[in-house]
Each structure stands twice: as C-alpha cells, then as structure tokens.
Specification:
The protein is an alpha/beta fold. The chain has 2 domains: about 90 residues, Helicase, Ruva Protein, domain 3 (Orthogonal Bundle), CATH 1.10.8; about 160 residues, P-loop containing nucleotide triphosphate hydrolases (Rossmann fold, 3-Layer(aba) Sandwich). The protein is about 50% helix and about 10% strand. It has 12 helices and 5 strands. Strands 2-3-4-1-5 form a 5-stranded parallel β-sheet, sandwiched between helices. Helix 6 links the parallel strand 3 and strand 4. It is elongated, with a radius of gyration of 22 Å.
Amino acid sequence: MNSVNSFFGLTCNPFSKQGVSAKDFFPSRDFQEMHGALDQAKDVRGIAVFTSPPGAGKTFALRVFSQELNPNLYNIAYICLSTVSIAEFYKQFCGVLGIPPKGGKPGMFKAIQEQIWYLYKEKRQPLILVVDEAQYLNTAILNDLKMLMNYDYDSLNCFTLILCGESYLNNTLRKPVHEALRQRITIHYEFQGLSDEEVPAYVRHKIRYAGGSEQIINEAAMSALNSMSQNNPRVIDNIMSDALTIAMQAEKHTIDADVILAAVNHQSFA
C-alpha cells in the first residue's frame, strides 16, 4: 500500500511541523513583521511583546530568529512556561543561564542579575531572554522581571526580554499594577493571521518545499480551505494533512473541495 508521500510524489509531509525546516519558512506578513521587530529588539534591548491566537506561528518565527543569531554576539535563552509558580520560574531561569538554583528566591534573583550583568559587561554577549506562553505569567513574576531590568539606577538595559503569548496577555499587561512594566515595552506586535491572498501562497509554498506539484490541490479546494481555516497556519496544516490522507484513500491525485470538507469534518471530531 502506498504511503501518502509516495502517492503524491512528496519527499515528506509538508504540513507536519516535523517536516518544516527553519530555512524554508513562508515569508508571511506576520513573519516578516515579527522578524524585523526581533532584529530591532536585540539591538535596543528592553521589552518586546508578541501576541496571537494559538497556531499563528510565533514560536516558529522565534526559532528562525534564534538560528540566525551570531552566538559570539548574543546569548539567547528560551523558557516555555508550563507553570505559574514563581519558584519554578526562577529555577527555569537559573537553568537556562547555567547557574545553580540555590538560595531561595532572593539568592536566585541576585545570581540571575549578576549573570545578566556578566554576560553584558564582561563577555559582551547580552542576554536575549524569550519567555514563551507568557500569558501564564502571574503578577509576582512580572514584577520581578521589571526589577531584574533595573541596572545602574535604571539607566541601562542590559538584556532583551521577549514575551510571547496568546492575545489575552495584552489584557494582563493593561492592568494598572503593570503600568511601570508596560512603559518599558519598546515593541508590541499582534499577529493578524494570513491574509486571504497568503493562504494559497502558503499552501503552494509548502507543497513545492516537499517536491510536489501545485496540481495536488485545485482552486475550488483552495477556496474552501481559505474559508474554513480562519487563516490560521496550524489549522491549515492540520486540514491539509488530513486532506492528503483522505484523497489517497479515495485514490484522488488532486484534492478537491469535497476532500477539504471531509478533512474539516474529521478535524471537528478529532
């Protein structure tokens, strides 16, 4: 029995995140805006905030950006939040900086601040700290992040803080208690999602990347995909992955609108 890849003449499933290489990204408007903003943030330091619905591509854009950084000039650290505990956050922070998590919160805070200063002043490799899923940050952690940025009587930014999260992170940052932190935000970008024109370009780009023909999907199917995907890259990927399997099982070498509808229905019950 043929696999989906061989049935369609693909080298891999172009809609699986395992099959995506950072160098073969689709240059969507959101991607280019975030990439340019990240490039600016690394130079001016301070705080950059990026928000979007799930699956819009923030983390992928971060991965591309981090791979392009010169490790001799910058020290990038990545924390993906799975907890809102301040103690666990400090332990994760110490871990990515390579320092022992000891001395309780006061000890870890002092050690982190000293390490950030060392990277900036002595090694000339300023820290770029990326906090992903930042919508889970609580008030105590956000307040401590603000204090960590106080150097030389609050006249110097020693590192870049990048907060990435779902859109309701914006609501958290708008609270009066975070006014001082919000004033430090130098870059703030909210993802718009793929435009109607970008959806077919995105799909064709991925198919070409996997060595396939653009004839794999017809115009009616592309129109159906456009209207049912909310222009969200992850939703598009999930629908198209199912569509490839459904089309193969039906022995269709071209994905049509019926296949897209069947894939959407499968996703709704998955």
